[in-house]
Amino acid sequence: MQSIERPLQRHGGRLQHNETYCGSCYGAEMSDDQCCNSCEEVHEAYQKKGWAVTNAELIDQCKREGFLKKIDEEKGEGCNVYGTLVVNKVAGSFHFVPGKSFHISDFLGDLIMLEKPTYNVSHRINKLAFGDYFPGIVNPLDGVQWTQDKESGMYQYFVKVVPTIYTNVKRRTIRSNQFSVTEHFKDYEAGHYRTIPGVFFFYDLSPIKVTFTENRMSFLHFMTNVCAIVGATEHNDTEIQIRTES
């Protein structure tokens, strides 16, 4: 195998004078002269093969860089995520997982897939909307919190998005969306990229569109309704008195 000399390794350690190093990709090489000189490069080689790294302890580059120690030091840490996604009007998904992601067929998988994951996917959704706000809208996931009380796994939200058009009394139109949601938790399976730990949102668009239109009632219409209500009230009162006297 050809040796490739690099003045500075990607893991941060400088090569000694006249030192050559070409790390193994552990069977994931795309060519005979490919080198994996860091834990990240091994992961990248595995992702191109569609493989999962199930035991980083056996990878020399990961041991040298203290990969597992870094993971242990990050236990208990969390993050606050906010932002906006622009997507096409077709079914899709987005997710929050530890590590980096890569694309396998029609699914996104995680690069850091250890044999016994200790990731805690407890989470709280402060706000989630599929479009602009309009009066009366209710987003069912706002304020939702889930706490993990067993081994790690995939927490899945299946969202049905309903296109909605809201028009106020000034004829200002807001095109937005409402949605309904169901939830499911799937236990983790070691080495199986379809059950990686994380929080996943799968959304689909409804073929039905909902339209809300505000109309201002005229004064004459208002007075007619008031008179009708008053008349019905007096009629009921008279009927009660007649029945009582009888």
Task: Give a written overview of the molecule.
With 246 residues, the protein is α/β, with parallel strands linked by helices. It folds into 3 domains: 73 residues, no CATH class; 127 residues, no CATH class; 29 residues. Helix content is 20%, strand content 25%. It has 4 helices and 9 strands. The strands form 3 sheets. Strands 1, 6, 7, 8 and 9 form a 5-stranded mixed β-sheet that branches. A hairpin with a 2-residue loop joins strand 2 and strand 3. It starts with 38 loop residues before the first helix and ends with a helix. The N terminus is likely disordered.
Number of structurally distinct domains? 3
The biggest beta sheet is recorded as: 5 strands, mixed
Average pLDDT confidence is 77
Using the CA coordinates, give the radius of gyration. 30 Å
The global form is elongated
Helix content: 10-25%
Distance between the termini: 111 Å
Uncertain parts = 1-18, 102-115
> How many strand elements?
9
Q: Tell me the fraction of residues in β-strands, as a range.
A: 15-25%
Structural class: alpha/beta
The count of helical stretches stands at: 4
Order of helices and strands: HHHEEEEEEEEEH
Summed up, what is this model?
The chain is α/β, with parallel strands linked by helices and 246 residues long.
Keywords:
3 domains; disordered N terminus; 246 residues; 5-stranded mixed beta sheet; single chain; alpha/beta; 9 strands; 4 helices; two-stranded antiparallel ribbon
